[in-house]
Design goal:
single chain, 259 residues, mainly alpha, Helicase, Ruva Protein, domain 3, Phosphatidylinositol Transfer Protein Sec14p, 3-stranded mixed sheet, two-stranded antiparallel sheet, 11 helices
Length: 259
């Protein structure tokens, strides 16, 4: 493993065993918020109740405030900002940048996932746009209702619970308590995947802005806790592997840098 180059920088690690042939180098970036020089937060700890109150308040109204807009947009690293601007111009000139996805932090996430290789980030971003169109992601709030939510939660304990000390939403998943046979009796793999995508969209559009406003700093990632207590071979059946791998692929390909 190579040396880390200071706080906020990325580490290069060698994947594939020995450092000889067949190995490759991959850059691991820290949580996206630590990539910027963020101002110190107030000593007052962010409470779950303050975030809950923000969830019930129209975020569009909050965004009209200039100070709130600064928090939602967050500080920007000058080098990152230049790369993002170059990336944005490249996509725009080629007619590949829809206005609704011309967001600084969205473009930055794809660039970071590809170690700021603009060609690779472009391919990833275009695949993301294609997937959104084919999966009708923007229509999920209107077309998809996960009516089995309550029953699924009993069988598959998971969800968000408060925030960490930096203001990031905390997601907890108790994998060892999942009963896949019962889960498939109340929902389907296709519907569960749609539910997962809708939750990721909610995290981007509602949870992160709410957490940003509550903590008075830009929040762009999630702290995830996976409780594997009780995990056994039954948790790795063929349907279970397919479901978890499909979710992992969606998160890696289309929602990079969120956790």
């Amino acid at each position: 493993m190579n040396n880390a180059k200071g706080k906020g920088k990325y580490k290069d690690i060698v994947i594939g065993g020995d450092s000889g042939s067949g190995s490759r180098t991959k850059s691991l970036h820290p949580p996206i918020e630590t990539h910027w020089s963020l101002p110190n937060c107030e000593d007052k700890k962010t409470s779950s109740s303050s975030i809950k109150s923000l969830f019930s308040y129209p975020l569009m109204i909050l965004r009209r405030s200039k100070s709130m807009q600064v928090i939602l947009e967050g500080p920007r690293d000058s080098k990152d900002a230049q790369v993002v601007e170059d990336f944005r111009k490249m996509l725009f000139v080629e007619g590949l940048l829809p206005p609704q996805h011309n967001d600084y932090h969205t473009l930055l996430r794809f660039l970071r996932m590809r170690d700021f290789d603009m060609s690779a980030a472009k391919d990833m971003f275009l695949n993301y746009l294609k997937w959104r169109e084919e999966s009708r992601v923007d229509m999920l709030p209107k077309e998809f209702k996960f009516t089995e939510y309550t029953e699924v939660k009993k069988i598959y304990p998971h969800g968000f619970h408060g925030v960490d000390r930096d203001g990031r939403p905390v997601y907890i998943e108790r994998i060892g308590m999942v009963d896949l046979n019962k889960l498939m009796q109340v929902t389907t793999i296709e519907r569960f995947i749609k539910y997962h995508v809708s939750e990721q969209e909610k995290t981007l559009r509602v949870r992160y802005p709410a957490c940003s406003l509550a903590s008075k700093r830009h929040i762009a990632s999630t702290t995830s806790i996976l409780d594997v207590n009780g995990v056994g071979m039954s948790n790795f059946s063929k349907p279970a592997r397919y479901l978890f791998l499909e979710i992992q692929k969606i998160d890696s390909d289309y929602y990079p840098e969120l956790s």
